Every structure is written in C-alpha cells, then in structure tokens.
C-alpha cells in the first residue's frame, strides 16, 4: 500500500506542484519583452508558473508617469497576442510598477468612493 502511494506521488509530482515554465518558454517570453523594449521603462520581476497543463506569466513593467492606462492596455494586448501565438493557452498579465525614476505607474481614478476620495480603477486586462 505504501509503494502504491509513493508511486502515485512520484508519477504525478509535476501535476501537483506549481513549477516555473521551461527554459525555452522563458526565452520566448524574454524575446517578446525585447521586441517591445521601447514601450516600457523598466522591468521588475518576471513570474512564471505552470499548474497541471495551465501556464501563467506575470511581468512587472515600469512606465513613465506620463504614460496612459490605454498605453499599458495596448502593450498588454500586443504582448499577449505575441506570446499566445508562440505559447498557446498562456495566461498573461502586466503589473505596472513605479519606474526607475520613482514615478508612479499609470493609473486611472473614478470619483464617488464612499469616503469621498477617488478610488483607483484597475483595467480588466490588468486585473488579477
């Protein structure tokens, strides 16, 4: 009985664990980042993982504070299209971060928050 359990865990380990994407897949992501180099100002952390047959990529990119949310959304759509063309079925998102000069990432606000302040709006393409 113990051997059966050990055998099941051993053969299904990759499916049970969230593991980073393969080196080849990470190189593909890096190539797409390089093609869009002019569209962002800094690169933060690149998170990749696979869970079963699903693959996820989350990239922290820094943007000049003058860049609009539309710019970030457009870049996200272009990068996602390029990545899914090479890695079908990939779940991709950009996480805007402050750029190297310390400026805040682009954001949109909407009035009418309960406390009277403006509340940040996370565009659907950037939402978790």
The level-1 CATH class: Alpha Beta
Q: CATH H-level name... which superfamily?
A: Cation efflux protein, cytoplasmic domain
What count of structural domains?
A: 1
Give me the CATH architecture, please: 2-Layer Sandwich
Largest sheet: 3 strands, mixed
Task: Tally the helices.
Answer: 3
What is the name of the CATH topology? Alpha-Beta Plaits
Q: Helix proportion of residues, in percent?
A: 25-40%
Instruction: Report, as a whole number of angstroms, the end-to-end distance.
Output: 42 Å
Strand order, sheet with most strands: 1-2-3
Shape: elongated
The H/E string reads: HHEEHEEE
Beta strand %? 25-35%
Number of strands: 5
Rg over CA atoms: 19 Å
Structure description:
- It contains three helices and five strands.
- The radius of gyration is 19 Å and the shape is elongated.
- It starts with a helix and ends in a 7-residue tail after the last strand.
- By secondary structure, it is an alpha+beta fold.
- The strands form two sheets. Strands 1-2-3 form a three-stranded mixed β-sheet.
- It has a single domain (17-101, 120-128), classed as Alpha-Beta Plaits (2-Layer Sandwich).
- Helix 3 (69-86) links the parallel strand 2 and strand 3.
- The model is unreliable at 108-128 (pLDDT under 50).
- The chain is 36% helix and 27% strand.
In short:
The chain is an alpha+beta fold and 128 residues long. The protein has three helices and five strands. The protein has a single domain (17-101, 120-128), classed as Cation efflux protein, cytoplasmic domain (Alpha-Beta Plaits, 2-Layer Sandwich), CATH 3.30.70.1350.
């Amino acid at each position: 009985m113990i051997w059966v359990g050990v055998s099941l865990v051993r053969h299904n380990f990759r499916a049970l664990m969230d593991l980073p994407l393969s080196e080849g897949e990470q190189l593909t992501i890096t190539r797409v980042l390089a093609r869009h180099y002019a569209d962002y100002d800094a690169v933060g952390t690149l998170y990749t993982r696979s869970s079963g047959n699903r693959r996820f990529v989350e990239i922290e990119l820094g943007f000049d504070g003058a860049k609009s949310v539309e710019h970030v959304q457009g870049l996200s759509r272009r990068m996602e299209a390029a990545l899914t063309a090479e890695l079908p079925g990939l779940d991709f998102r950009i996480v805007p971060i402050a750029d190297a000069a310390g400026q805040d990432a682009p954001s949109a606000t909407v009035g009418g928050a309960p406390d009277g302040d403006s509340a940040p709006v996370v565009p659907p393409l950037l939402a978790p």
